[in-house]
Amino acid sequence: MAAGIDDIAIYIPRLYIDAADFADNRGLDPVKLQKGLGVSQMAIVDSNQDPACLAANACLRIMQKNKLSPDDIGRLYVSTESAFDESKAMNSYVIGMLEQVYGQGAFEHCGGVETKFACVSGSYALYDNANWIRADEADGKAALVVVSDIAKYDMGSSGEMTQGAGAVVMLLNDDPRLLAFDPKVTSTSIKDEYDFYRPFGKETPIVHGQYSNLLYMIQVRKALEAYKRKVVSSGLIKMEAGETILDHMDYINMHLPYSNMGKKALAYLVRHEWRQLPRWKNILKEIGMDEPIPKDPRGTIESVLGDEEFMAKDHEFTKLFTKTQAYQEVYESKLSSSLIASTMIGNLYTASLYLGFRSSLEFEYQKGIDLEGKRVGFGSYGSGSSAMVFSGVVQPAYKEMVKDMNLEAEIGDRKRLTWDEYEELHENKLSPEESMVHSKKEFVLVHVNTEKESRGERRYIFNE
Ligand code: CAA
């Protein structure tokens, strides 16, 4: 039985901090954000928003757009790394909000859990729900997988340049109009690591930035190796001599903590794949330098990052590699459109990869490219750490879904925050009633209880 993504919807908060204002107030070169990281604007949540209401707003959009009733939905999964409760799943809050619109008890038949594994958990949720459909357990119903996060870092930290917020929801069923997942090829890697984590009670993560960048690429590469073995053994793809698996992916979507991380990760994967192939000789000729090798043959992340001479040479080599015509073609045709939304919105943690997929569909379609039958590869990464690589094929009915996609219209009018407003929001100085945007037809947070017996209870309303 087929399983895949039938439709996708987003909800992005309408406040943002502009990269130029950010750089100005932090004494940074704006070019570092805009060109170095690929960050132009970062979406920031209002004082009456939390990850649960971002998720509920995205779910309401996809249900209304597709005229779905709660009876059409058999499972609702929420994936997040911005949880605010150690026990009560974010699903309950989302269901509670949706039932304000669809009626109390309307979703009581619907199962689901909150999943956690940093930014990769949404991919596990997609995989588990696709398998629920493939196993014929769905009884004709669809699943909603919603990925929702607020990427918030400490004031003045290097991560603060890579913030953002938003939710993406995917409707999964057995006759998907957008993308059918390739069966039996999803591959993972996993390792106990401390590259990025958020201990109990801490609102912002502890991050080892450069370590996390390298670990992301290593872990995704490991998952890609496993994926390669599976596509060949399952017969999904016939590999000819001199080819790489990436030649068989028309599009490659990567996890995007900031848009240039997608570029970095693609360059890393392509470089490792091409190194084994006859084409590498010509690439080296064009680059005009040998590929650097780290001093320590063990090649641990610590030894590689500590080898300053190697890191500098490798950086130079990578820059030259990404300028080669062959790499530029791969970058332009397979990745570039997926980065546009990330540049405008910022980091969405679990939702970043899927915002990238959504961005790729819209902007490739606008180029007039026929996407039917194109294979899309996904490189998902979650700190701590695990990676997942999987793929799917764009379905004949995709046009019906993609032709009306309009990122700017879906975000809506945005308010550019002043630095003082940004600081007030970041430091949680405003109460829900002091929100900056007064939105209609949306769920908002109105109260978080602080009394001993009901501490942490949250109340939401649907703004008519
Ligand atoms: N003009 C143009 N470019 C400039 C520049 C300038 N003035 N100054 C620096 N740059 C370039 C640098 O050359 C670099 O480009 P390359 O990567 O191509 O070399 C880029 O801008 C970034 O500069 P730095 O590497 O010096 O930046 P940094 O160390 O200060 O911070 C960061 C970058 C480590 C990503 C930091 O923002 C951070 O810690 N972010 C949070 C962690 C993160 O996002 N990790 C990603 C992998 S883990 C993950 O993916 C999970 C998740 O969602 C968080």
In short:
Helices cover 39% and strands 20% of the residues. The chain has 464 residues and is of the alpha+beta class.
Essential attributes:
binds acetoacetyl-coenzyme A, single chain, alpha+beta, 464 residues, 16 helices, three-stranded mixed β-sheet
Number of helices: 16
Bound molecules: acetoacetyl-coenzyme A
Mean pLDDT: 97
Estimated structural class:
alpha+beta
Query: Which consecutive residue ranges, at least 5 long each, have pLDDT under 50?
Result: none
Q: What's the alpha carbon Rg, rounded to whole Å? A: 22 Å
Q: Write down the overall geometry.
A: globular
Please identify the oligomeric state. Answer: single chain
* Number of extended strands: 17
If you had to describe this structure to a student in words, what would you say it looks like?
- The chain is 39% helix and 20% strand.
- It is built from 16 helices and 17 strands.
- Strands 1, 4, 5, 6, 7, 8, 9, 12, 13 and 14 form a ten-stranded mixed β-sheet that branches.
- Helix 1 crosses helix 2.
- The chain is globular.
- 44% of the residues are buried.
- Bound molecules: acetoacetyl-coenzyme A.
- Residues 29, 31-32, 35-37, 118-119, 158-159, 161-162, 196, 207, 209-210, 212-213, 216, 255, 257, 261, 264, 315, 347, 349, 381, 383 line the site of acetoacetyl-coenzyme A.
Topology of this protein?
Elements: E1 4-11, E2 15-18, H1 19-26, H2 30-37, E3 41-44, H3 51-65, E4 73-79, H4 90-102, E5 114-115, H5 121-134, E6 142-151, E7 164-173, E8 179-181, E9 187-190, E10 196-197, E11 206-207, H6 209-234, E12 251-254, H7 259-274, H8 279-287, H9 301-306, H10 308-323, H11 325-335, H12 340-345, H13 352-366, E13 375-382, E14 386-394, H14 398-402, H15 407-411, E15 415-416, H16 419-426, E16 442-448, E17 458-463
Parallel strand pairs: 2-15, 4-5, 4-6, 12-13
Antiparallel strand pairs: 1-7, 1-8, 2-3, 6-7, 8-14, 9-14, 10-11, 13-14, 16-17
The structure holds acetoacetyl-coenzyme A.
